[in-house]
Amino acid sequence: MKQLFEITGDGKESVQPVLSIELGEKHCCFSITDFASQELQQLAYYNAEEIDEDFLTELFSSHPVLNNSFYQVLVCYDYPQSCLVPSKYYKPEDGSSLMSNMTGIPSASSVIAEAINEWQVNNIYIVPQKVHERINKAFSTGKYWHRNTVNIKNNTATTEGGNLLVNFRNDDFTVLASANGQLLLAQVFSYSTPDDVIFYLLKICEQFGLKQQEVNIYLSGLVEQQSALYRELHQYFLKVIFRNAAWVTPPNNESPAHFFTSLNDLAKCAS
């Protein structure tokens, strides 16, 4: 496991600490925030060849704070095998067969379905069974969502020109596309060069009739403002905006605010 980032606060104890933890195929990150003040107290971000039981054992050993009691625990699964189905067409008994037909179901996997009532869709997705069992054992009272569900819940904009919420990791990125109050797409794409990203975003705009001059590109995750990728995006789109995390960070934090917006989105689900 490789730690990419770590942020620590002043050690002040919170009365209502909220743990937000996100797990994907090759990345895992968590934050601890204060529910009332929305202050970030601790954050860690890891990459690994595989997020499995061994990784989680090492993670909990490296961060004993994860064994503490929390006011709320929020878990986000960021795995790519996800399918959105309009509620009127969704039948619970069809979830496994639908995922099997669309993506195949890896052995020792759990199929989970979530209703997103605000948008009248259901999100069906796949999680490695051993990971789900280990996390559920550690956080039996936690609240669980998929990344697409969290993104959709946080997508309140109804811009006529359309919005693309783009979140980057080391070798892939997620896109949530919407326009005129309608959800258009929630998808994960792999990339190795800036040209790959531009290709996918242009294809999305073409498919859904979004104009390059009008669509808002909201960036978050591991993309630098001085990067070639950021410069290339400005060559093709007029409205490229960083979507920054809104929590209060420790004074010693030097990481850009948009690096951890996905964790902040998850933390905002606390109630």
Outline the fold blueprint.
Blueprint lengths: L1 E7 L8 E8 L2 E8 L5 E8 L5 H10 L9 E7 L3 E5 L8 H8 L6 E8 L4 E8 H10 L4 E4 H8 L8 E6 L3 E8 L2 E9 L3 H15 L7 E6 L6 H9 L2 E4 L18 H7 L4
Parallel strand pairs: 2-5, 5-9, 10-13, 13-14
Antiparallel strand pairs: 1-4, 2-3, 3-4, 6-8, 7-8, 10-11, 11-12
What does this structure look like?
With 271 residues, the chain is an alpha/beta fold. Among the domains are: 2-77 and 246-267, Nucleotidyltransferase, domain 5; 158-242, Nucleotidyltransferase, domain 5 (2-Layer Sandwich), CATH 3.30.420. 25% of the residues lie in helices and 35% in strands. The chain is built from seven helices and 14 strands. It has helices at residues 53-62, 95-102, 129-138, 147-154, 194-208, 228-236, 261-267; strands at 2-8, 17-24, 27-34, 40-47, 72-78, 82-86, 109-116, 121-128, 143-146, 163-168, 172-179, 182-190, 216-221, 239-242. The strands form three sheets. It has a six-stranded mixed sheet with strand order 1-4-3-2-5-9. A five-stranded mixed sheet has the order 12-11-10-13-14, sandwiched between helices. Strands 6-8-7 form a three-stranded antiparallel sheet. A hairpin with a 3-residue loop joins strand 10 (163-168) and strand 11. It is globular. It starts with a strand and ends with a helix.
